[in-house]
Amino acid sequence: MKSVFENNSTKKLVHQKVLDDLKTTHFEVEEITLLKMVNGLHCDVIAKDSEGYRSYAVTLEKNSKFDHLYRIFDVRGQKMVSAYQWKNVEGGER
Fold first, then answer.
1. What's the pLDDT tens digit per position in 56-92?
2. Considering the domain boundaries, does residue 15 fall inside one?
């Protein structure tokens, strides 16, 4: 995931639409503090950068033709709304 946000990810792992969308929102990720599967093709990602913590909803697509069976299909920013998201960042609570 870190390579996706820093715009140096492998095209085999990420849909071109995601790479195009992220060109305008390039930022350096210091760490990914949480990666939680929501269901088979969706996950929440909490990343830390110089501005603080950000939450993303990530959608995967599955195809046996992909090198790793899955690739990132969509990345959308979202508010940190769930208790488990806040408990995994510094300070622990909002």
1. 888 999 888 887 888 888 888 888 766 555 566 665 5
2. yes
Question: How distant, in Å, are the alpha carbons of 9, 32, 59, 80, 92 from that of 88?
Answer: 25, 10, 21, 11, 6
Q: What range defines the domain where residue 58 resides?
A: 2-83
Whole-structure pTM value: 0.69
For the segment 13-35, what is each residue's pLDDT rounded down to a tens digit? Answer: 777 777 777 666 666 778 888 88
**CA 16, 20, 25, 93 torsion: positive or negative?**
negative
Our count of domains for the chain comes to 1
Instruction: List the end-to-end C-alpha distance of the chain, in Å, as a whole number.
Output: 25
Pairing assessment for the beta strands 42-49 and 52-62 based on DSSP bridges: antiparallel
